[in-house]
Design a protein that fits this description.
Layout (H helix, E strand, L loop, with lengths): L1 E6 L7 H15 L3 E6 L11 H8 L5 H12 L2 E7 L7 H10 L6 E4 L2 E4 L5 E7 L4 H6 L3 H14 L6 E6 L7 H13 L8
Parallel strand pairs: 1-2, 1-3, 3-6, 6-7
Antiparallel strand pairs: 4-5
Helix pairs in contact: 1-7
This protein binds flavin mononucleotide.
């Protein structure tokens, strides 16, 4: 499968970066073709400007948005890797969605209601969090971590096979725990094989 990894972390020494490397290696080991979109490295501008919106409303896709949509269209599988920031996606990633998932490209509303237009065969979100699993479970907050991404974005746009994995308490995690996470991530390339 052609798989696009969209990665949103500013620090090359972060645990998220280690996850990115393992995911990329795991996919390649299974024979998948991988492209990485490193939003910070690309210095992606996440702000949807008035001029962008104006063009979109007139049915013209600005060049900066068309370029991102082409990357998305290249892929059959999608992986998103990012830390949880204020119960959400880092602004650079949120802004990527604001810009890329335009009406008429990613979804449309017609007489029969909403239709998602993305044809990707599989999508996976790998999310790290500072809080403990216990905290999120006790506060019934777990769905807040992933549903804006899985339901509110990817399924909304028509992708049927959407999965996520949350890795908690990254700051408090032992070296062994980190190794275990990275070993698990390395196997996830298999999830993109034909079922
Ligand atoms: C701006 C910011 C906001 C954060 N918000 C949350 C949050 O809402 N919930 C949480 O559990 N952790 C939060 N964290 C902690 C990060 O999720 C955590 O440090 C990260 O997942 C660890 O991965 P890393 O070492 O690769 O950065 C936040 C961190 C930053 C810098």
């Amino acid at each position: 499968m052609r798989v696009l990894i969209v990665y949103a972390h500013p620090n090359k020494n972060s645990f998220n970066h280690a996850i990115l490397e393992k995911m990329q290696q795991g996919l390649q080991a299974e024979g998948h073709e991988v492209q990485v979109k490193d939003l910070y490295a690309e210095n992606f501008d996440p702000v949807l400007r008035a001029s962008d919106l104006e063009s979109l409303q007139l049915g013209n896709i600005p060049e900066n948005i068309a370029k991102e949509q082409a990357s998305l269209c290249w892929a059959e599988g999608l992986v998103f890797i990012y830390p949880l920031w204020w119960f959400g996606r880092p602004a650079i990633l949120k802004g990527w969605f604001d810009k890329v998932l335009t009406n008429g490209f990613a979804f449309k509303f017609g007489e029969e209601g909403l239709t998602g237009l993305l044809k990707h065969r599989r999508a996976l979100a790998l999310i790290t969090a500072g809080g403990t699993e216990d905290f999120f479970k006790k506060n019934k907050a777990e769905p807040l971590v992933y549903r804006p991404m899985t339901d509110g974005t990817l399924s909304f746009c028509g992708i049927e096979d959407v999965n996520h994995r949350i890795y908690y308490d990254i700051g408090g995690m032992s070296d062994r725990g980190r190794q275990d996470v990275l070993e698990e991530v390395a196997t996830m390339g298999k999830d993109f094989n034909e079922k």
